[in-house]
TrEMBL record:
TM spans (from-to): none
Biological process terms in GO annotation: regulation of translation
Pfam families: SUI1 (PF01253)
Every SUI1 domain range: 31-101
Protein name: Protein translation factor SUI1-like protein
Keyword DNA-binding among UniProt keywords: no
NCBIfam families to which the protein is assigned, alphabetical: SUI1_MOF2 (TIGR01160)
Molecular function as annotated in GO: mRNA binding; translation initiation factor activity
Length: 113
C-alpha cells in the first residue's frame, strides 16, 4: 500500500485571478450615496466614504443650507463617520460634492432604487 501515492487534487478557485488583479491595482476610494427607506414615504440619504481629513460638520452645514433639509453626522463602528440627510437627496448630494471639489464624479457610487 505504501507504493501507491495518492494525489489529492487541489481546490480550484475561480476567483483567484480576479483577487490577484484587485490586490495589485490601486484601490479607489469611492463615496457611497445610499437611500434608506423609513416608514411610509419617509427616507434617509446616507453619505459614507469621505476622507477623514474633511470636516464632516462643515460639509453637513453646507449640505443642509443648500438642500433645505435636516441632517446629522453619525459615528458607525464599521463604516466610520456617515452623513445622514432627510429625504431622497442622492442626485443633489452628488452634484454638490462635485461642484464643491470634494470628490470627482468618477469616484461616486449612487445606490438605491
Amino acid at each position: 500500500m505504501s507504493d501507491l501515492e495518492v494525489q489529492i487534487p487541489s481546490a480550484f478557485d475561480p476567483f483567484a485571478d480576479a483577487n490577484a488583479e484587485d490586490a495589485g491595482a490601486v484601490a479607489k476610494d469611492y463615496i457611497h450615496i445610499r437611500i434608506q427607506q423609513r416608514n411610509g414615504r419617509k427616507s434617509l440619504t446616507t453619505v459614507q466614504g469621505l476622507k477623514k481629513e474633511f470636516c464632516y460638520n462643515k460639509i453637513l452645514k453646507d449640505l443642509k443650507k443648500e438642500l433645505c433639509c435636516n441632517g446629522t453626522v453619525v459615528q458607525d463602528p464599521e463604516l466610520g463617520k456617515v452623513i445622514q440627510l432627510q429625504g431622497d437627496q442622492r442626485k443633489n448630494v452628488c452634484t454638490f460634492l462635485v461642484q464643491a471639489g470634494i470628490v470627482k464624479k468618477d469616484n461616486i457610487k449612487i445606490h438605491g432604487f
